[in-house]
């Protein structure tokens, strides 16, 4: 989903845009008490790192990291015809979404540009806040998203901004073992499955998902109980608090796009290689906003494509760096940095379709110099989601 505030180096930290006045997350004091370096992002004070981005990245790949993503928007939908209404807004199959399952989807504008990417779940019998559908949208766009949806939803469908909920992400190969220590029933969840659980009398909506490429969970918890849960998790030997800087480097290695950088209203679902989010029935039936562009690009191909890039040497390419094939500029880097697990700089960018094949030789201009790069298969680090019980 959206880009946390930056990865791999203090040079980036200086460029974070602070919006004033900044709000505090429910766990603001908790982060500060643990020595977090706080920065402004998406209108909030956010923890970018505790002991260092590199160390936190490696810990999450080897053990389990706890991320605070409470800035993101949590929305509940209910009312007559909610599935039909959401199938106009989203290109994904909502009617076929089974209880306690979730899907990755997007909001598209009338021209098929991406307004946001998101996760959508069916709650089952109003199990969580009385809603039928639960959605998590990006923090930087959540108010725009809500405005867009209110404009296009019928009066019979009610949207509730669940701003009394915090959101934590527990990620890493030992995340399942750690969470099962507190809530044994979560051991039965598989990737993209969710459920309502109770811990010490606190209701928790938990999905087995995340944005690091590792096994893990996202946990919606009442804001008043977030510190209690965070303390219990970080008391386990597998778990440490991790800042959003490492979340960025982790998701880049996993080949996952972030809204506002790799995804924008200027780019398309098919070019972004996100066609998997549009199931067969929706492609055939259409009826969603932006359908015409999706179908045209499925038939004719997009003009440009999101690709992964492996970079020679040690110099990382950052967002905005131009990409060349010979003397012709063919694209632009949208996110990049040093990848600790890969041990080399990597990037993601958009390039014109003729230069997007795996193995294509390109050059990226960094600090006035051209450095060699190659279009690479993504993810750079294999996903380790728990897909089977």
Account of the protein in words:
- There is one protein chain.
- A hairpin with a 2-residue loop joins strand 1 and strand 2.
- This protein is globular.
- With 389 residues, the protein is of the alpha+beta class.
- The strands form four sheets. It has a six-stranded mixed β-sheet with strand order 10-11-12-9-3-13, sandwiched between helices.
- The chain folds into two domains: 300 residues, Gyrase A, domain 2 (2-Layer Sandwich), CATH 3.30.1360.120; 87 residues, Beta Barrel (Elongation Factor Tu (Ef-tu), domain 3), CATH 2.40.30.110.
- It has ten helices and 19 strands.
- The protein starts with 9 loop residues before the first helix and ends in a 13-residue tail after the last strand.
CATH fold category name of the largest domain: Gyrase A, domain 2
Number of domains: 2
Give the uncertain stretches in residue-range form: 1-19
Secondary-structure-derived class: alpha+beta
Sheet with most strands: strand arrangement: 10-11-12-9-3-13
Count every helix, treating DSSP H or I runs of 4 or more residues as helices. 10
Largest sheet: 6 strands, mixed
Number of strands: 19
* CATH structural class of the largest domain: Alpha Beta
Query: How much β-strand is present in the residues?
Result: 25-35%
Keywords: Aminotransferase, Methyltransferase, Transferase
GO molecular function: aminomethyltransferase activity; methyltransferase activity; transaminase activity
EC number: 2.1.2.10
GO biological process, one term: glycine catabolic process
Produce the secondary structure layout.
Elements: H1 10-13, H2 28-33, E1 37-41, E2 44-49, H3 53-62, E3 64-68, E4 73-79, H4 82-89, E5 102-108, E6 114-122, E7 133-137, H5 142-152, E8 157-161, E9 165-171, H6 175-182, E10 194-199, E11 202-207, E12 216-222, H7 226-234, E13 239-241, H8 244-253, H9 280-285, H10 291-300, E14 304-311, E15 322-325, E16 328-339, E17 344-352, E18 361-366, E19 369-376
Parallel strand pairs: 3-13
Antiparallel strand pairs: 1-2, 3-9, 4-7, 4-8, 5-6, 6-7, 9-12, 10-11, 11-12, 14-17, 14-19, 15-16, 15-18, 16-17, 18-19
Catalytic activity: N(6)-[(R)-S(8)-aminomethyldihydrolipoyl]-L-lysyl-[protein] + (6S)-5,6,7,8-tetrahydrofolate = N(6)-[(R)-dihydrolipoyl]-L-lysyl-[protein] + (6R)-5,10-methylene-5,6,7,8-tetrahydrofolate + NH4(+)
Keywords: Aminotransferase, Methyltransferase, Transferase
Binding site for substrate: 218
